[in-house]
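Escalated from tier 1: flavin mononucleotide holo job.
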Amino acid sequence: MADTDSRLALDFCGMPFATPLVLLSGCVGFGEEYTRVQGFSNRDAGAVCLKGTTGTLRLGNAPHRVYETPGGMLNAIGLQNPGVEQVVDNILPTLDFDETRFIANVSGSTIEEYIDVTRKFDDSPIDAIEINISCPNVKEGGVAFGNDPDMSARVVEACRGVTRKPLITKLSPNQTDIAENARRCIEAGSDAFAVINTLMGMSIDIEARVPHIGNNQGGLSGPAIKPIALLKVHQVYQVTREHGIPIIGQGGVTTPDDAIEFLLAGAAAIGVGTALFYDPLILPKINRGIIDYLERHGLDHVGQVTGALQLNTQRPAQRCGC
Ligand SMILES: Cc1cc2nc3c(=O)[nH]c(=O)nc-3n(C[C@H](O)[C@H](O)[C@H](O)COP(=O)(O)O)c2cc1C
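Tier 2 regenerated the structure:
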């Protein structure tokens, strides 16, 4: 969408987003992956999240690293990346910051590594920093931090101490009380949330009797996880709305209707990841569909949809799904 529509533009933690769509970490390399596809433009996204970056180079997991499943895919890339110095010195200078906002995705095995990587990105042109405490595909750190509210808060507080750039905490769905975790991360200095990362899953080759994924287990993404992601966004929004803290809702968005659902549940922006594997030119279609929705509902701006969900009230709320 060459001429981005002002009805889609928003301020996200002080950053101007041309549209509420955010390209998700790990699904677009370091921001250049789809720019080679004719008709694709980073300008159709409000922001692009770069691949998870660690203190030093990581070669990632043994193959197979991805496997398609009904309604989604499993991945266990294992945070393959060239290390933060390479990213800052050699990749960031190649990105066109006129096109969109670029967000670093920070990972680590120790709190010291998170601090080191965040500090290096702080001293770079990157627009914001997303802390990935929810990666299920590495042995240490990642989701092990994200599943424990105390550890999550410690990581956020440590990163907050070394950057004034917007800090987005990426929360894991693989935990008991995501709202409590969000509350602790706000106290520790998080400016925004990304909800959710992948869910842990497995797929088995029944003839060979081994898991399809080399790492045995992987993170499930795509439409299969959307209902879970929507509920998690709704739960986190109950905590964030009183603080005015925005959420990038994500998990299985493939259509404009999916994006609207996330907005209604409380997201200010919507992530698109796995859908790009199916349709690299999906962004203008989702942007156009959001505008159609605004027009159908007599709304002037996408922000009016955020959190506009009205829960059913005719019966007492029941948590049980049986
Ligand atoms: C191949 C692949 C690699 C990913 N790598 C990362 C990563 O490095 N850091 C991260 O925070 N999330 C990573 N994710 C998770 C996505 O950013 C996103 O949160 C998740 O896939 C849910 O969105 P989706 O269903 O639209 O893909 C990865 C996902 C996929 C499919």
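The mean pLDDT is 95.
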